[in-house]
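Please review the protein record below. Tell me whether the encoded fold seems credible here:
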Amino acid sequence: MTRSLVLKLGVALALGFAGVHSAAAQQRSLGTFGDWTAVVDGSGSKKLCYVGSVPKKAEGKYTSRGDIHFLVTHRPADKVTSEVSVATGYTYADGKDAALDIDGKAFKLFTRGDNAWAYDAAGDREIVAAMKAGRTMIVRGTSTRGTVTTDTYSLAGFTAGMKAIDEACK
């Protein structure tokens, strides 16, 4: 993942969780681990950590898409660990779950706008455990226009990236 993508991910995450302000200046890369990059943003009660990646392959009959990425986030102040989220680069169709497949193990993610999440903390933990043991992750979604997309992620380096954010946000 490139430094500019790390910055984009961080700004998107900071804007999504902390309101509109520029937290990018407080962002620090914890390193790139295979296909995943770990980042710590902020400090003290506003600190959050995440590991993120972009798909190796993005497929679908679309003309354009925004940024696509998958994140696992720790927000210690909110007592949130290992929160799974995906940004798909388009608005999901209302009422349609996104499908997540990790080496043949299926999960459903609820969607809102251009993001999708696990239904609860237990789902987050189950997905993260599968990611640590897995090799390939596929996210399938449907846009408001009915376009079906398939995004394929490598899980190489995910476990090491998780260790980095676990340490930074313990």
About this structure: The chain has one domain: 3-168. The CA atoms of residues 1 and 165 lie 16 Å apart. The domain at 3-168 is CATH 2.60.40.1880 (Immunoglobulin-like).
